[in-house]
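Notes to self after the Tuesday call (sharing in case useful).
The group wants a holo model before anyone commits to mutagenesis around the pocket. I volunteered. Ligand is 9WO. Logging inputs and output together so the record is complete.
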Amino acid sequence: MRVDVLTLFPELIDQCTGFGVVGRARERNILNVCGWNPRDYAEGGYRRVDDRPFGGGPGMVMLIEPLRKCLQAVRSADTEPAPVIYLSPQGQPLTQAKVRELAERRRLILLCGRYEGIDERLLAAEVDEEISIGDYVLSGGELAAAVLVDAVARLQEGVLSDAESAMQDSFEEGLLDCPHYTQPAAHALGDVPEVLRSGNHAAIARWRRQQSLGRTWRRRPDLLDTVTLSSLDRRLLEEFKVQYGSETTPET
Ligand code: 9WO
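Result:
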């Protein structure tokens, strides 16, 4: 997968996608992230990329032409067509379903705004879709772009190990993850649930599934409206409600 990112801070994107799973995907050329700076396409001595908003008001607005010229260079860099995605608080919420859809594309072009935003005429002419990672305003679109790159990278063939893929599954299904524990088994903060030390893999799988269901019910009941539960899932969840319904600590 190739991801081209238009940003005034390409080094920020490079850093945010240069470590861990995503960094290894880039090293292995499973993922190719290219930063493009519109300032390189701005004219004049100051290489202006922004100006004051018409109608007055605070902040500055990004100019059309540096972005348009930059986008032309990005498009010319590869014959693979790609959707242009603008990261903004006004976008559609990023969900795992949208991540799965975008992860199928061979190329994405991400547009990151700064200041108070981008001239609406550029957005209307060049942007295919707007995506938001949450209802808050950041200093720019770059961190949202890095979140999107991270999420789609994890779904690329060969990026996650089998175990990591299995971990991914619960959220892929729309459920929250179960609790995780490691050494030591006994600690002043509490002991590891006995079932996880039993070696009984069927019981462990059952406990983990029940915890995922129970956590989803407790923390994000809205997600259960969109998940198809098996009869066993429903039984596990009812058992969880009876056994742990009122507790707040991780269940033993
Ligand atoms: C800046 C500003 C300054 C003064 C008064 C109002 C203002 N609004 C903004 C603003 O919304 N700036 C945005 C910065 C313009 C688009 C790029 N920026 C951005 C993207 N902030 N937060 C996001 C974002 C992207 C995706 N998901 C959540 C937030």
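Two things stood out.
The chain has two domains: 2-163, 168-244.
The mean pLDDT is 94.
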